[in-house]
Design brief:
Largest sheet: 8 strands, mixed
Number of strands: 8
CATH architecture of the largest domain: 3-Layer(aba) Sandwich
CATH class of the largest domain: Alpha Beta
Radius of gyration: 22 Å
CATH topology of the largest domain: Rossmann fold
Order of helices and strands: EHEHEHEHEHEEHEHHHHHH
Distance between the termini: 30 Å
Helix content: 40-55%
CATH superfamily of the largest domain: NAD(P)-binding Rossmann-like Domain
Strand content: 5-15%
Number of domains: 2
Length: 272
Amino acid sequence: MENKKLGFIGIGNMAAAIIEGILSTNAVSPEHICMYNPHFEKMQRFAERGCVVCDSISALAAGCDVIFLCIKPQAFPAVFEELKPAVANKKASDVLFVSIAAGITFKNLRDALGSACGCVRAMPNTPLLLGEGATALCRTENVPDASFREISRIFSCCGIVREIDEAQMNAVIAVSGSSPACLYRLAALTCGYAEQRGIDREAALELFCQTLKGSADMLLKSGKTPQALIDMVTSKGGTTFALLDVLDQKDFDGTMEAAFTACEKRAEELSI
């Protein structure tokens, strides 16, 4: 992205994490990062480090080569009302849009802009805030390999990146976008149970989190399937067997599949 200007519309947690990753790795110089947000305090810490604050969406769009749309799907109509005329005189090849909004398709973006511009959709997750994110990316056919590599490099500043097809973007939300909430809920339940049994809550959280880390490493490094790892820790008639038996009785698998489906369906509903 050397000599290219990046623009961020919306400076929430995700945008802040992306900008932080860019600055911490010197991927782009601060003066080449432009921002627009209705509330200045969201931009202040980056402005103090040399990033450029724009007073309108149109001002940002006029001066940027890559525009990150870091807004909620519900905000798109109002944003595009100002964005569309701002990019109307630009060639489709002169600007690249990167959207992190769930459910907003390439067709939605191009229809709203009235242009066959190059677009990248990204589905990051909240561990991005600690540089441990998992981001799925897809692109339109007119995004050059070199440009896509640069976008991938930006998200790689904050974790791992994998390219998928757009048809899979709504499904991947359940895989990595929304799934942290499941783990946080399990953490809350586990630590609450531990506390009821007289175990120090902080100690329980540390034990649980290390268990998550270790289990993730087992999945990635052992060469064994998830079922094989389940079998390793489960003895018939043992404690893990008793735990899993209750989950089976409560149709845990069916409940989770229904939750994944609901997540994907909601993403489809958010399409404008």
